[in-house]
Design a protein that fits this description.
Keywords: Endoplasmic reticulum, ER-Golgi transport, Membrane, Protein transport, Transmembrane, Transmembrane helix, Transport. By secondary structure, this protein is mainly alpha-helical. Helices cover 77% and strands 0% of the residues.
Length: 96
């Protein structure tokens, strides 16, 4: 998962560089060429926004549905409670 966040950070850094290049004063012809280049690059990269949303949902899901044990070894009742919460969350999502 760290690799996915690293790729996302690189994409955001590239967007910051492109935005800073677009906002500096430059001749109109240079800006038009830069805008066309940026649009050609960003069209295939439009999967980044759903990817980031998926990553955030994945983090939320893992945080909300993690197995919580009172000691180093989980007991059978703790595993049962975990399975019931996961099954309950699935049934409440699909029944609404």
């Amino acid at each position: 998962m760290a690799l996915q966040w690293m790729i996302l950070a690189y994409v955001v850094a590239a967007e910051v560089v492109l935005v800073s290049l677009l906002t500096i004063p430059a001749p109109k012809l240079l800006k038009n060429q830069l805008v066309s280049l940026v649009s050609l690059i960003l069209q295939p990269a439009m999967f980044i926004v759903p990817f980031a949303g998926f990553q955030l949902l994945d983090i939320y899901w893992k945080n909300e549905h993690r197995l919580v044990c009172t000691s180093e070894i989980c007991t059978a009742t703790e595993r049962d409670r975990y399975e019931k919460t996961v099954c309950h969350s699935f049934s409440s999502r699909f029944n609404s």
